[in-house]
Prior knowledge:
The protein is α/β, with parallel strands linked by helices. It is about 20% helix and about 25% strand. The two termini are about 15 Å apart.
Amino acid sequence: MKFGVVVFPGSNCDRDMIEALQDNLQQEVIQLWHKDKDISRFTTEDCIVLPGGFSYGDYLRCGAIARFSPMMQSVTGFANKGGKVLGVCNGFQILCESGLLPGVLLRNSHQQFVCKNIFMKEGASEGGQALKIPVAHGEGRYFANNTTLEQLEMHRQIIYRYCDENGHVNAAANPNGALHNIAGICNKERNVFGMMPHPERACSSLLGNEDGRQVFNHLFGIN
Length: 223
């Protein structure tokens, strides 16, 4: 399995993602420039990653300009053919702006940038282990209309929810006011994934946290 990491002007987590995948998880990684279009070396068994950061300075709305980049045109076609795509933080915002995932990411309910470790767990699990994963965003409040939320719940598309350290999903554990404590979702076909927390920042023993490895194992079967 190969991973392609897209670099936009303003990306600041691309190196973190590359190091996590390449050095910590021993995966083949290819860096992709936003102005390029050629992703012919990737098959639907591979994955394209949209990393965190502030693509195009987050002008207009987060991810609103990046969705029109030449590379995103190719990524959209790749996803529609069944190729795997992961968007983290700003990457999640880009996926929503491009229509590859439903809903939007709005300004945090407390109107402040949040940068800290949070706990999250698999969205469909009743119990489930709480994973400690960092977040760093000002616009991470997931919002969708009631019909979309019902569809997400019905089709088990909520892949992660914010929870406390004991795995309990509650308002106090929600860092941004996201509806249904949503930290990450996928499409109905389960090949496009978006999440606000940064698993790539929790894959090294040197950082004292390797919970992020479980995210990549959950989504792609690697650890």
